[in-house]
Write a structure and sequence with these properties.
There is one protein chain. With about 90 residues, this protein is an alpha+beta fold. The chain has a single domain, classed as Gcn5-related N-acetyltransferase (GNAT) (Aminopeptidase, 3-Layer(aba) Sandwich), CATH 3.40.630. Helix content is about 50%, strand content about 35%. A three-stranded antiparallel beta sheet has the order 1-3-2. The protein is globular and about 40 Å long. The termini are close together.
């Protein structure tokens, strides 16, 4: 895996889905936070929505991007996710 943060994200997501028996995991990311958006897409999340001017941050209205990942999609694709993470680290 690429670094400890990515590894922890992967392991946490796997634990949440497998141990907590969730059907879906959802996250929201500020639109200007490219690193977080890339991270979640790399883990297999899919963009589900774009909330325009959704929150006020530093006296500015900013967009929020919603992402989701179904547990069955994780189970079917998480080996591919590991391969992508390993390739990224090279």
């Amino acid at each position: 895996m690429t670094d400890s943060g990515t590894s922890m994200g992967y392991l946490s997501l796997n634990w949440i889905i497998e141990q907590e028996k969730l059907c879906k995991v959802c996250v929201e990311v500020l639109d200007y936070n490219r690193a977080s958006r890339t991270f979640f897409l790399l883990l297999g999340f899919v963009e589900k929505g774009h909330l325009r001017k959704y929150i006020l941050k530093n006296d500015r209205c900013v967009d929020v991007i919603q992402h989701g990942l179904f547990a069955d999609e994780w189970r079917n694709n998480h080996r591919t996710t590991v391969q992508k993470l390993l390739q990224k680290s090279r």
